[in-house]
Amino acid sequence: MASESKYIHNALKQVHLETSCTSINGFSISGLATYLQFPELDFQVDMGECPLSATSINHVFLTHAHGDHARCLMRHHSLRKMMGVERDSAYYLPEMIVEGAKEWIRSEAMFEGVPESKFRLPDIFAVEPGKMVSLKYRKDLTLKPFCVKHSVPTMGATLFLHKRKLKEEFLGKTANEIIELRKNNVEITREVYEPLLSFTGDCLGESLIQNPEIFKSRILVTECTFLDREDEAMSRKKGHTHLQHIVDALNKFDDEITCEKIILTHFSMKYSERHIREMLDQNVPEKFKEKVIPFI
Ligand SMILES: [Zn+2]
Ligand SMILES: [Zn+2]
Asked: Is residue 131 part of a domain?
């Protein structure tokens, strides 16, 4: 229905979701814009739009260079400067697109008339698949990127909560015994990485099968551009996920899936809100119905 379509096609009207580790604010419709804010993690994925609420977020991960995901990156940087935010934001970009991004940022600055002598690049960190990197201002959070298949170079990532836990063999010890062990330089803790959030960026459905560890994250955000049976071939051609591919992955990994929520984003703008909800209702396996939530 036309009125429903309009409702979900306004990129500045944010969707809000609550999870056990963070709220999620943002918007994601294919071709229009995608940005996902995780305020309690001081983290954002993609910057297809930059509402004022993004300016308090210090860490931004760009999954790929498509305009609906990337075009407001420098708006975030300059809005923060304009508002007097002193901290430099940290931008995490797939290594393959870093040089292109720097050229783009420079060209945009020259276009706006920034004098060469005043131009300075923001803090851009090139991320590599499998290489862990802790967030600049949140050392308790560590990113582990992975490659996905899309029409252009794209990465998703898992964000882990990094903590130290008492080793099993010391669990029953008293406080005094622990102090004594510490004094004797006994290593009583072990490192633990708890996967809080995984996000895939735009990708083919097969990327879900190739990265099974994402189904161990508390929250999984993955794209679901196409829903209708006749759009299956289109999804492969455009490098996007079809709902059937998600259903196949859910059935394949089944009991191994420990996500609290699986959030679907990036629906094609041709679908109405009602159609999206109906298709999920008809296709998502019964045991996953409560977990799988459309981000609309
Ligand atoms: Zn996209
Ligand atoms: Zn894309």
From this structure: yes
pTM over 0.70: yes
What's the CA-to-centroid distance between 66 and ligand 1, angstroms?
Answer: 7
Residue 260 falls inside a structural domain: yes
Q: Is residue 2 part of a domain?
A: no
Q: Residue 164 is part of a domain; what is its CATH number?
A: 3.60.15.10
Query: Could you report the per-residue pLDDT of 182-213, keeping only the tens digit for each?
Result: 899 999 999 999 999 999 999 999 999 999 99
Asked if residue 5 is part of any domain, the answer here is: no
Residue among 272, 220, 264 nearest 243 (CA): 264
Domain that includes residue 175, residue range: 14-294
- For the range 160-168, what are the long-range contacts, defined as Cβ-Cβ under 8 Å and sequence gap of 24 or more? 160/132, 160/193, 160/194, 160/195, 160/196, 161/21, 161/193, 161/194, 161/196, 162/134, 162/191, 162/192, 162/193, 163/191, 163/192, 163/194, 164/189, 164/190, 164/191, 164/192, 165/189, 165/190, 165/192
Q: Residue 227 Cα, ligand 2 centroid: separation in angstroms?
A: 17
Which ligand sits closest to the CA of 266?
A: 1
CA of 64 to the centre of ligand 2 (A): 7
